Amino acid sequence: xxxxxxxxxxxxxxxxxxxxxxxxxxxxxxxxxxxxxxxxxxxxxxxxxxxxxxxxxxxxxxxxxxxxxxxxxxxxxxxxxxxxxxxxxxxxxxxxxxxxxxxxxxxxxxxxxxxxxxxxxxxxxxxxxxxxxxxxxxxxxxxxxxxxxxxxxxxxxxxxxxxxxxxxxxxxxxxxxxxxxxxxxxxxxxxxxxxxxx
Length: 198
Description:
198 residues; alpha/beta; Rossmann fold
């Protein structure tokens, strides 16, 4: 149901949606049922043959279910959380790390004061605990849609948005930003706006 709601939010955005009930079909059905009156004939139950007693087989006592180890979202140490998606490398490439550090420094922050996590290597990919427990103040994703993190939030790229006291920013992957001067500028402006408003 949650995925369906998120789908409709994305598909129809700011349009008002109405749910139409199936009244027409149910009223036609009632009219037909009212016209057709079943003929009632007395039914006499037939004598049932006796069934032999069956003894259930003795089964071994079931083993208790083994507890499933829940994989939690990693513990955060800083107020800025940055998510990247590098399926081939556990670490961010040096050129992207340098770009990110330079842009963060331009707005008064640095990568040394941020938790940088690679989505592809996260043990638990459910970030709802981060939102509910308010473990961070800034949540920046580079190429990681929030729906993959089980967060049903509708965000426009490069537009910071505060939700329940946490600032969210959705951006393109760093490799794409690195190759496009206009996207670098958009990212810098979005980060500047986000950190100024907080």
